[in-house]
Amino acid sequence: MPPLFNRRPEPGLSGPLPPAPLPLAELLVRVRQAVETRFAESYWVVAEIADLTLPRHDGGHCYLVLTDQHVTGRGAQLKAQARATIWSQRYQQLAPAFLDQTGQELQIGLKVMLRVQVKFHEQYGLSLDVLNLDPSYTVGDLARQRLETVRKLEAKGLLERQKHLPLALGPQRLAVISSPTAAGFQDFVQQLSESPYDFAVSLFPASMQGAEAPASILGALDAIRPRRATFDAVIIIRGGGSKTDLLAFDDYGLAAGVGSFPLPVLTGIGHERDEAVLDLAAHLALKTPTAVAAFLAERLARLDAVFGGYAERIRELARLQLSDAADLLQQAGRFVHRAAQEQLDEHRAELYHRIRQAATVPREQLRHHHRHLTRHRQGLRRAARRALAQQQQGLRTFGRRLAQRFRRLHRRRREQLLRHRYGLQLAAERLLHRATLRLTQLSAPPLPEATVLARHGYVQLITDHQQPEHALQPGDEVRLLLPHLTLAAQITDRTPHLAPSALPTASPASSE
């Protein structure tokens, strides 16, 4: 039969999908199943009784609160705590035996070694069922040495270290430490071959009896250590033997080497009643090699059952989801039909309402727009009149400013022209006076007639009243005859001529 589980994942397979959210009850059911699967066997534990409730009557149960503490310089510190129960029938057997061998009854503060089985309940949580009690005091040197070894391992944390290592869900790559000729090894291999699952067994030979057994087993562990990545667990098995053959498995060095080993170590050293220190330091202690093989095959069977349960649960959930989806789809169809009918009725009513409003709303809007336009038209007229008045006022103001500015400019220009004319008259009088003085000093020939002088560019004086030239006074108006123009002038001053006989009768004038 082909192997159900491969030792390595097939290449090309994608990673698992993220898990769907679970109800709390289902999660706790899975925790219970995992605890029952993972901690199917019983375990020896060392703890202190923190609380104790003894049976009040025959047939009652004993309830304990177990704690694991260590003492530091600042006092005791709690490491772990768990509830434990000694059921009535087992208590009636264990309590008298404990009292006979130790001389004292169970009490608070007492450190005990118990063999417990882990239980988990969805409502009450984690608890321990006490299966057996190991008395604190034993008889004989071997028992004292064994107890001392256990205490040293516990002090260094090597007694429980293997318990905390995770064992693979389906351990199939096995490193077996045993004698090749041991019947226990043959039984182990035969038991594995009869299982429907595939196991890869690698044998590391070692001596399993005598004083050289601890060193031989430690040598095999050292050979496994560099190849630990290729194995899931280490199996230490041997066949049956006398009670003295177990002394090698109480060796502190061997137990410490197993307790500190990085892989889970399973033991099956072939004794039904006795338990070696090696068993306490191992991850899991089983009685015989065939028990170890049965445990491995059963672990894979449980894993197979779990996967089968998961598959069945997945199919059941799929059917439930399909049924729920079908019901939901029918409900959604009815809801959609009902909602569509309601929306259709609403739209029909709204359409009728809009049709009624279509006859009244436009007229009302037209009246509203007409009133609005009327107000705007009146407002525009008032605004136009106000703007026109403002523009007229601005134009009048601008006209007054232009008139004032024009008058100022005209007055300024007139004054400039008068100053210019006065300057020209003054310059002309000066030039005339200079010319007169120059002429008086010259002996010039007699001037020609007035008409001839006028024709050649000289000025002829004409009076309105035919007054003689010597009778003209300042303020009299005269005319000056030029060759091509006659000017009206006014006498402003008289200047006596030095040679009146030689010059024509004329007086300087200023034209207006």
Mind telling me the C-alpha Rg? 69 Å
Overall structural class, as computed from helix and strand content, comes to: alpha/beta
Shape category: elongated
Give the SSE string: HEEEHEEHHEHEHEHEHEHHEEEE
Instruction: Report the span from N to C terminus.
Output: 150 Å
Mean pLDDT: 80
Strand order, sheet with most strands? 1-2-3-5-4
Strand percent estimate: 15-25%
Annotated CATH architecture of the largest domain: 3-Layer(aba) Sandwich
CATH topology of the largest domain: Rossmann fold
Beta-strand segment tally: 14
CATH classification, class level of the largest domain: Alpha Beta
Low-confidence runs (pLDDT<50, min 5 residues)?
1-7, 137-141, 499-512
Helix content: 40-55%
Q: Major sheet: size, sense and barrel closure? A: 5 strands, mixed, barrel
Total individual domains: 4
Query: What's the tally of helices?
Result: 10
Short description:
By secondary structure, this protein is of the alpha/beta class. The protein is built from 10 helices and 14 strands.
Secondary structure blueprint with pairings:
Blueprint: H1 24-38, E1 42-53, E2 62-72, E3 75-86, H2 88-102, E4 111-121, E5 125-134, H3 141-155, H4 161-164, E6 173-178, H5 183-194, E7 200-205, H6 213-224, E8 233-237, H7 252-259, E9 265-268, H8 277-281, E10 284-286, H9 289-440, H10 450-455, E11 460-462, E12 477-481, E13 486-491, E14 509-511
Parallel strand pairs: 3-5, 6-7, 6-8, 8-9, 9-10
Antiparallel strand pairs: 1-2, 1-4, 2-3, 4-5, 11-12, 12-13, 13-14
Helix pairs in contact: 3-7, 5-9, 6-7
